[in-house]
Structure formats: structure tokens, C-alpha cells
Hints:
Chain A has 106 residues and is mainly alpha-helical. Chain A has three helices and no strands. Chain A has helices spanning 6-26, 30-55, 59-89.
Amino acid sequence: MIVVSFMSYILLAILLFSIGLIGVVSRKNIFVIYMSIELMLNAINLILVTLSRHFATMDGQIISMMVMAIAAAEATVFLSLIVSLFRVKRSINIDDYNSLKQKDTL
Amino acid sequence: MTDVMFGILGLFALIGAIGMIYFANTVHSALSFIVTVLSLAGLYALLSAPFLFMVQIIIYAGAIIALLLFIIMFLNIREEHRPKEPNKLIFMLIAAMVLAPMDVLLFKAFSTISNVSNFDKLTDNFGSIKRLGDELFNGWLLPFEMISLLLLVALVGSIVLARKEERE
């Protein structure tokens, strides 16, 4: 029987963060990359709430609310960026989004 | 009881996350991510954060994922728009093998954080919404106002980015 303690939550958050990082580096679909970034923010939120419970102060919960607000702001900007990029390139592959690359020097 | 609930919710969170990075169809990924988000809301409730439980469901499952699904359907992503990823599983396995030692290191670093644990015993009205509001508007008023400014800037920025370019 596993006794649920502080470290179980930390282990779960570390695993979720790693899955998000794996998604960012191994997928080419821009929507999946965006959702992986959101998953990493969620894992950090879980760590903040766990530490807030561990030290019995409310500050971690407030910081995680602010992380959620920043995630919402990021969602609007990222999704409108995807819309405008899709309008130009007709693709959601990140390999096609190479407008900033200097093609002739590489 | 709490142990069983933590196990079930954690398992659902991991399954949803793995499905999110595995599915080729974008809509399936987004629906799988909802499972993770709702499981995390349940974990916040277990950690005695009832306001974050509600905010997680409203903001993530209600607003962000709904906006994401709306954009996916609005862009009308079809089979030929999706990138071909034949080596997806190999890349994932390599990334997992590279990240595994870092995870062990992080876990060991976290286990040295403090021996004094308040995890089982709680102070009076910890986690209540009233105390959260008191802390937010007494100690964190300036960051709160800056967050509102950030949301305004993000609103304007998204309008500027998504506007159709005028051709002259």
C-alpha cells in the first residue's frame, strides 16, 4: 500500500512535465506543441499547490492562479498567431514555419 | 480513501497526457488533454484548494480547450494539412531516455526540500476562499493589477495578429 504523501504529488508533476517536454521536442503538429506547453504549465501549477499545502501557506495557490492567467493570455496570442500563420502557409507543420531562417546562408 | 482517489486521478492524468502527445488527429489530442485537465482539478480538490478546482475547470476545460477546439474546427484542418510523422515513436523514446536521468535528479532534489511536514495537519481555514481572497488583495495587490494589464495587452495583441492583412 502506497501512502500518499508530498512526494507522490511531486513525482506525478515531474512525470507530467517530462511528458510535456517530450511532446514539444518530438511532434511537428503546432497544436500538439501548444498543448504540451500548457501541460508543462499545469505540472508547475501542481507543484505550486503541493508546496502550498506542504508549507501551509496560501502563497503557492495565489501564484498558481497567476500562472493560469498568464496561460490564458498565452492561449489568445498563440492561437491567433496560429490562425495568421495558417492563413499564409496552409499548413500546421512547424517545419513550414521557417520565415525567420536565412535560407541562402545555410 | 484519499490514497485511492490520488491513484485514480494520477493515472487518468498520465493516460490523458500520453494520449495527448501520441494521437495523430489533433481533435483527439485536444479531447485527451481535457482528461488530464479535469484530473488535475480533482487533485487540486484533494490538496484542499477548492477555488483552484473551480478555476481549473472553468479556465482550462471551459475556456482554453474550447477555444482550441474552436480554432481547430475553424481552420478546417484536414488529413493533408497534418504533418507526416513516421518517426514519432522513435523520437519520443529517445527523448524519454534522455529525460529519465533528469527526472531522477529532480526527484532527489525535491526530496531534500524539508523534513518538517505539515501535510497531514492543516491550520484553521487553510484553503478557504475567504482566506485566499484576503491574501490576494492584501499581499498580492500589485501583481493582481499587473495581471489585468497583461490580459489587456494580450487581447490587443491577438486582435492585431489575427487581423487580415490589407492589400494595397
